[in-house]
What we know:
This protein is an alpha+beta fold. It is built from 6 helices and 13 strands. It has a single domain (about 1-315), classed as 4-Layer Sandwich (Deoxyribonuclease I, Chain A), CATH 3.60.10.10. Strand 6 (about 160-165) and strand 7 form a beta hairpin. The protein is globular. The relative contact order is 0.15.
Amino acid sequence: MKRRIILIAATAVAIIALTAFTACVNTDLSGYGFPDGFEDALASFDFTRSENADVRVMSFNVLVSIESWGGTPVPPRAKMFLEILDKVKPDIIGAQEVCGDWHKVLEDNLGEEYKITHPDINVFKENKSPVIYNSETMELIESGYQAYSEGDDNGCRAVTWGVFKIRETGKNVIVTNTHLDLIRPGKESQELEIMNKQADELLAKIDALYDKYSCPVISCGDYNSMESAETPDYYGKPQGIFAAESIYKKLADSLDDLKYGENTNVICSDENKAFVSTWDHIFARGGAEAEKFWILDGDAFENVSDHFAIFADVNLK
């Protein structure tokens, strides 16, 4: 009994601490405007949905508010994120680095249309890689969360998944979302080993979901791995060993990178950068291909995050 009372008291203290911490986050976004150029940049894209697309899926590392990670306060950036959702209208978003501030702001501003799966893996909302879905176009059948056996203990290193029925067509689709570890200077071999284990666990989870539900899988994520270690990235710099190229190749050997589909139209502000190496990817298996693939690139979108949103119109077989 004494132990139970202690546990209850500890939980209560944690809840009070969380409430105090999140209460200071301003969730009223009405006082924030958009930075110069943001609305024009967004309007420059044609977001017309592919005629035969079954589902529009986005992957977006929104960047935590933690200053040591390079983050800035969430509310003004959330205002831009929500504007992107309003214009793009994705059916499903795999979001990464969704810290407690992000969860609080989104919960108060997404409205009834968009829902978040598995933010509450514990009282501190440490799942930084939730799946967000449009409840008007998608019906959630089942969902889950699996932390990786190794890696950073910060709520990022896990896979969140959902099985959805598309309301209009009745087709089912599985969406996974993840954020792998990264290679850090001086720890190259150790980090690569951890990333390999995480990639293996992700692929095993995708296999298990595919076998159980017998429908296509779309796998969003910040994989902290690039297509090439030698070719320049978006900013013209090769990443070398830090690109974790072998991790990308492992994933691409088992899954299809939707950006590189034979009939995929890649859309971005600079067509010369459509196929540069990136950290973020949308993979698939089991009969899914993209008709259109967007990269929301350009200086104006750097105010939202240190990553560009990517999304695709996907046909399901």
